Amino acid sequence: MYSYANNSIHNNNNNNSCYHRHSSICDLHSSHKTDASFLFRTIYDLSFFVIVIVIILNLIFGVIVDTFAALRQEKQNSEELNKNHCCVCGLHRSAFDHSNTSFDEHVEVDHNVWHYIYFIIYLRTKLTDDLTGLEIYIDKLIKDCQPLKVIICTFTLQRRMAMINIRC
User: What is the DSSP code string of the chain?
Assistant: First the structure.
């Protein structure tokens, strides 16, 4: 019975036999393993790769750390702005120190953002013929994509209900 495996073992003229003579390049130059230049070259190559890898990894990790630090700072700034500024009128918490209302009461009662959102939804769901003059004007501002500051100033009419002595 003829088998390819048996034939390849007995056939020394196989085309793949040249690959089995040397397993690596180092086997070709085995006499250079004890040479001083081989040792220097090995140390040089290893130190080059270690230094390059360390520098590149430090650059990559530095960019990642800086990006997360910037995101964390942006989040802290946003939280500070939300906690200490009224998003409707823009007044700081310290402006309410000499007022008869607290900042939290002002934000929750006088300028509750959800009331404005409900009003915008109300304008969107109500027929145009049933709107009043002010509602038509505000609806037009919203549909024309006017800046939020213009719409809010129209809503508040440059006044705060509980703070007559403080201006915008």
Answer: ---HHHHHHH-TT-GGGGGGT-SSHHHHTGGGGGSHHHHHHHHHHHHHHHHHHHHHHHHHHHHHHHHHHHHHHHHHHHHHHHHHB-TTT--BGGGGTTSSS-HHHIIIIIT-HHHHHHHHHHHHHS-GGG--HHHHHHHHHHHTT--HHHHHHHHHTT--SS-TTS--
| CB proximity list for 152: less than 8 A, separation 6 or greater | 88, 89, 116
Backbone φ and ψ for 92, nearest 5 degrees, come out as: -80, 155
Say what the pLDDT of residue 87 is.
79
Interval 92-108: pLDDT, tens: 888 888 778 888 888 88
pLDDT value at position 69?
97
Q: Give me the long-range contacts of 92-97 (CB less than 8 A, separation at least 24).
A: 95/163, 95/166, 96/163
Instruction: Enumerate residue ranges in the chain where pLDDT < 70.
Output: 1-34, 146-168
